[in-house]
Structures are given as C-alpha cells and as structure tokens.
Amino acid sequence: MNQIPASKGPEPARLPKDIVTQWPAGLVGNPTALPQCTEQQFAHEEVRNGVGFKHNECPANTAVGVVAVEVNTVTSEVQTLDVPLFNLAPSKGEPARLGFEPQVPVYLNTSVRTGGDYGVTITSNDISELIGFLGIQVTVWGVPGDPRHDAQRGWECLQREVSSCELGEAQPPPFLTMPTSCEAPFSASVSGDSWPSVGQEGEYLPQASAAPLSYALPERVDGCNQLQFEPSISAAPDVPEASAATGLSVDVHVPQKSVLGAEGLAEPAVKDIKVTLPEGVAVNPAGGDGLQACPESLIGYEGSREVDPGVSMATFSPALPDPLEQGVNFCANAAKIGTAEIRTPLLPKPLSGFVYLASQNENPFGSLLALYLVAEDEEAGVLVKLAGEARLSESGQIVTTFDNSPQTPFEDAILHFFGGERAPLTTPARCGRYATTASFTPWSGDEARQAASEFAITNGPHGSPCPGASLPFGPSLTGGTTSNNAGAFSALATTIGREDGNQNMQSVSVRMPPGLSGLLSGVKLCAEAQANAGSCGPESLIGETTVSAGVGSDPVSVTGGRVYITEKYAGAPFGLSIVDPVKAGPFDLEHDTSKPATNVPACDCVVVRARIEVDPLTAALTVTTDPSGPHAIPHLIDGIPVQIRKVNVLIDRPGFTFNPTNCEPMGIAGQITSDEGASSPVSVPFQATNCALLSFKPGFAVATSAHPTRTDGTSLDVKLSYPRAPFGSQANIAKVKVELPKQLPSRLTTLQKACQDSVFNVSPANCPAASRVGEALATTPLVPVPLSGPAYFVSHGGAKFPELIVVLQGYGVTVDLHGETFISKAGVTSSTFNTVPDVPVSSFELKLPAGPYSALTGNGDLCASQLVMPTTFTAQNGAALAQSTPISVQGCTPQIRVIRHSVNGKHATVVVSVPSAGTLVAGGRGISRVVRHLRGRGKVTVRLQLSRADQRFVARHHGRRLMAPISLSFVPAHGKRLSARVAVLMK
Fold first, then answer.
1. Domains observed in the chain
2. What's this model's pTM, rounded to 2 decimal places?
3. Which of 351, 397, 417, 826 is the least buried, fewest Cβ under 10 Å from its Cβ?
C-alpha cells in the first residue's frame, strides 16, 4: 500500500515511478502458449466527436490475470478498480510483456536474471502520475483458459457486460509453472522508487527509493515426488573412423509433453547433468594448437552464491562485456570449441551460441578442463551462461558435469564440438559399439535418472579396414648427422614416429653405427637426483627435442625440450635426462594446480630417462629409454592421452658429436616396443664421406729386456701414438697385426694357464692370476681420464691358441681389445687385433712384464741380435701401413761385437753389432779404412780391402800365412768411445 494517514482520508505518500518484482527461481511463464495482444490493440487510439482517447481492445483470450488497483479519487475516496491483465506482444529484448490499463496503460516488462538463478524479474517503469496509486494487487493465472476464470476474463466480463467469457478449450495450456524444487520456501522480493514531489511546506522532495522487500510463503512447495522425469541423451562423433580427430554432437532431451491443463503437472527442471563419454573418446592434444582459453574476467564470472540451502551456483554478469568498453572483448573466437543450442517451450526460437574453453585452473572449479556455455536469444533478450567441468579419469575417460543448473525448463540442449584435423576429441582406436552414459538429477529431489546412447565405429583410420584384436604397430626411424664428413664434428638428428591407429610407443632402443660418438671431455655429467628431477644445468646440456602429439594430419608440435647427459644410469656408464615441456595451446600441464600435491613432479615437465651403453668390442653406443616406471615415455598426462606421433632428438652441442672415420655403408638401427607388448625393428642407412682425405701416420715403438731367464722370461713394451693434428683430420686404426721375432717366442707354460672364456665373460676379475700377463693404458679425447686395465690370456675351447684380451676401463667405460694369437711351426708368434674401435686415440701403451707368468721368453743373446717386429696397421678408411719395427733391447752393456768375419782374396768382411747410433771406424796396417755412420742399434757389415805390399812383407818375413789384425772403433751419439779388435786369417 502507498498511503499515509490524513484528516480527510488516505493520500499517496509518494507517487510510484518504478516497481521491480523478482519472482522466485523456478516460477516461469510461457507466453508463447497463449494468444498475444498487440500494442495497437492494447493502446488503441480513437477519435470520437473530435476528441481523441485511448481504448484498450485486447481480446478476452489474451487475458492472463486480473489486477485490483486502489486509487485516490478527486473526492479523496479510495476506489478499487478491477482491470484485466493481458499477455502483450513483447518488444525486442523482452521474453514476455504483460500490461493492464486502469485509466492509463501500465506495462509489466519481463527479464531473466542472467548469470544468477535465472528467475523472472517484472519491471514497471515510469508509472503515470495521472492516477494516485495506493495499492496494486496483481493476480496471474496459472492456466488462463481454466473455466474458473471465465467471469474475470477480459473487459466485458469484468464490467459485467457479459456473464462469462468462455474459451471452450478442452485442455487449456498453462501460463505459469510452479518451481519444481520443494527444498526451499517460495520467496520473492519487490523494490521501487517514487517520482519527485512537493511537500506540505512547499519544499521540493527528491526522488525516494524503497529498500527491497522480501517475502516468502509460510510453507514449502510440495508434490515434487509426483513429477514425471524421463530425460534422454544422444551422442555421436562426426566420423565413424577409429583413431580419428572428430567433432561430437550431444543432445540432452527433456520431454515437455506432460498433460498440462488445470490439473496437469510439468516435468521437473534438470538440476545436475553428468555425461560420461565412452573409453577411447579422449581429449586430442592436436586440438590445443592455435586454441585459446577464456578467462573468468571476460566471461563475466562473479563467483558462487547460495541459491538454495546447501546449493551454490556460479554467477555471471548479466550481459556480454561491451567490446568498446576500455578495450575489453568477450571470449576470443579462438576459445570456441563448439556450438550450443537450447530449445525451450518458453521462447519461440532456440537460444544459440557457443561452447568456450575456460582458462586452465582459473575457472569456477579450479580444474584443468572446464567449459562455458553461452547461448542467447537476442530477440527475447535472454542470455544463458553456464559453467561445466570436464574431469579426466586415469585412463583418459571424459566425464562432464553441469551441476546446479538453473531451475528453468528446456526441451533440448544440443552441443556440437567442432570437428576437423584439430578437433578437440578423438574416436576410439578400435571398431565396435560404444555407449555414452548420462545421469540426470532433477530439482524435484528425486533420485537421478540414468540414460545411455550408443554409436558405432565402423572403419579403421582414414577409411581403412577395421583393425584386428591387436592394433598394428609399424613405427619408423629416420636420422643422421647434418654433415657427413668423416671424422668431423656434426649435429645428430634422429626421429621416431608412429601413425594414427597404431599402438603407442613404450620404449625405444637405438644403436648408433661404430665411430659415431660424442666427446665427453669438457662436458659435466648431470647427477642422478637432478637428472630424475629434470633440473640439470646447462653444462650437461647436449641437445633439444621436438614432440608432435595428437590425432589427425596436423598434430601439435611441442618445442623446447632439452637433452642432458648424466652419470651412470640403470647399469650403463652414462644416461640421458630428456626434459620435455607439456604445453599445447592453452593447456599448460606444467602448471596444473588441480593435481594433488603428491602428484606434482619435481619439475614442471615430463622427464624421460634413458641409459647409454658402450659396446665393449666396437665402442658403438646404444641408447635405450626406460621401459616402464615414472620416467618412461608417457601415454597419459593428467588424463590426456599424449598420442605421440613423432619425437625428434637433435644432439647439437658444439664440439660434441663426431662422425666415424670409416666410410663403409652402415646404419642406425633400433628396436621400438609398444604399450601392448609388440616389438618392431627399425633402421635407417648411414654413411660417412671423404674418408680418403684423412691422414694416417701412427707412431709405433717396441722394447724388450736384455736378459731373459728361464724362470721370468722377458718383457715386451709397445707404444702407439698419433701425431698432434686437428680433431677429425686423421683416420683411426681399424686393425693391427704384429709378428714377434724368433728370439721372443710365446711362453707355453703361461699359455697353458689361460683363463676360460666362461669365467672371463662373467667377470675378468675372476680369472686366475697366472692368466693376467700385462697392463695397458690408453688416452683418448672422448673421456677426461685415461683408460687402463689388465691384459689376459683367454682360452676359447676349440681355438688352438688363447686370445690376448686387453680390458680398458675408465670413466665408467669398458673396452675389450681382442688379439688373436697364432704360433707358426717355426715358432714365430703373431697377434692380430681385427676389431679396433673407431675412436680417436692419443696414445696406447701395452706392457707385458717379465715374471713367473710372463707372456714371452727369450732365446739367445738379445743384445747381440738386431730384433725387428713386422707390423701392419690398417686404418678405418682402408689405408694400410706396413713396416718392420725395430725392437729396442733394454739393459744391454754398451759394447761393439764382431759377430762373424771372413776373407775372400783381397777383401775382408766383418759383421759388427753396435749398441746405438754413432760412428764406426774399421781399419788396420795393410787394411783399408772404412767409416760408417749409423742411425741406431743393430748389425752393420763392413768390407775392407787388404794391401798387396803388406801381404808380400808378411810372407817374406814369415814364410807362411799369418793373421792380420783389424781395429774397430765406435763413437756413440751419446756416451764413451768403444773399441774392439779382430784378426782375420790371410790366404
């Protein structure tokens, strides 16, 4: 009531200007089910006797209620006017309009509370001041066609011009539907303001506003348990092919065809919707490429509020943001992932709009995946904003929920998620029938209803036949160095891949060709803890990765991966820590705050570990990723199937990877296993070039001891060295063959104590001490420390002679050099190293010492003999170097010796052994003088001429043949002068 006490009767306190009434959530009207009165009929203008006036001509069948209006007449008497309430044709932007005309038209404009509880708000603006309103009572009929309203329907009935206004409808349609929730009291609110006015003292009274007045029925709504609820769902992908990027159409249908008359009951509104897609319909990582997400600020999210006791609903701003307001735009087109259409019997046209991807974690659920459904009927001015959450199971199954939806009836909610090569979803990998299940909870409080929908996958990928019980598995491998110059540094790229519809890759093992390796000197190996955590430093970085993931012909490429070399791992001397980001468009799984704290990795990334094994015979590298466990190739990340299509690994650290010095055709080979246990060999050809340009000039020196004994034999020391030269300019050794002189035979008693190969293969350390015949030391730029280790005689069952195997170890690496031993019938021992690793070596030393188990013994006076070792070196590029390597005898007393001499006529021949480089002078009385300059230790033959005169002198005085003395003098390059004499018998 709008009045104050007065001595002469009630008067209006203020004249009402605007009145706003908020109907309870769930109380809805259906203006489309009833005839509508046009604006021309409602405010019809006529001219009678030259005077214009308005006359309401709305038909009786457009009446939807009655309004009792209390006004103050000119005689200050309160008069109640009963006028009909009409269903008017709404203006653009209104879902419905009501109106009544006490003396002037009064409009009741409707709107829907967008983003909140979606209840109806009735607004009457600029109410005319011509009538002093004291009070208004508006009665809206639930079923206007009900015969009980005949006496009040329209002007003629209310003014008693006719007794009733029968419509004669057997089942008149309803106009109002009560809320279908019986949980909360039926409540509403009203507020308003007044026109400015002048007070009793003549002062101006400004416009006043009344505080909103809320009111509630004393009892709850009941009868919810009598409502029928039969929702259904239809869901099907766009394509019937397996392992395909696909769109998806989903139709949630709630039939609105109950018997709706005066006694009819409506379908309850849907409160909660839970849709579970079948296993295999999964999120497609490729859909993230180019996709954006909509933040809360642009969708207009304003938080959550309680709409019923214990029921909270996400609330949004009631309109789309103004694109011109401070540069604010609505969700970008790139955030759209589907279309939306909502059909309701309350509106003549469907609401249409889009489904947007919500920003990860920054959404009403704080989850990885969330959706915003935005649909609008611009003509009716109805805008719907809803938030839904998509949860992913551990297997990648998608469960989407829209909880606490508005208490508003709809008949169909149709969503279509976009298709195409970057569709957000994928079909299952196998043919068959798949069921989508749904659970619908009504506002009536009844138990949830279940529904299901099936679709069929009838083809394999790209229209191929359906796969069998097991998916195919045909992975591929490509790779090679970017520059194939022999021995040169070059980046190494390898790519593994699989096609759609194939089994997922579980583990990869790749064997590099011999000689294709990396220079570890100067590279810090990452420690185990940091490697597992993905936190290695740049000093261990050797390369980068690019991963392509997703289904379809346009997978997403994730760049920025890093490859680190690590300390020993999984029993291998080295390992890899491959650290990949997990980002695709708006999906940033590195920062998925929805994960439980226990599931958050130490690094915001995926870490794949691999071991690097070194072949002990060829030094070839084999890289194998973990077959299982936390550091294996991932298949699911936070419930999103990775669907890896390609993995490219580029090892590009400067001065690290280098090519072989062997240009024979080789290959990069591997074995890839799947998550279903399949295994497939893969390979790609590899060949270095320009090997002929490499030089091959190794140095080789050999020494033995001067005094072999029966108990200790003798020693032999060999040293191989390479000249200083730029890295990659020299060919590495491929094969070495040496022959020992007869004076240095193998010691048979030691050969008989050779280690059995069965023992050696388990652990050389278990071999008997008698089989260990030497020590070796090798320096190489590959590792920062020398490789060293023992040399063993190893017996191989049927082999005639034991092998000499040198075991080199250092920096976690073990290399075995196998030398085949052969002893000829003449007693000459040869050793052939047929498989020398194609790696650069600065120097190699092998010491076979004298002792109880020496490898060699000695024959004769080694100091008196010139010992040589026939040697053949074969390079990796095919070059050969054959030489007779002199053997230096250590420990000989410096002297010159005449080994033999003879006379032939006028000439004497003397064979002399010298201990080192120097100058030899030979001569005597009656004998010519000879000078020889020698470069080293060994034998030298001197030929001297005898004088005739001296021969006659000797014969005349002695009358018989005499011995002629020859003097020998040797001046060594370093040391004291040495001399000797020999007498030759003259003929």
1. 16-178+183-199+206-220 (no CATH), 226-463 (2.60.40.1510), 476-691 (2.60.40.2230), 698-890 (2.60.40), 897-985 (2.60.40.10)
2. 0.83
3. 826
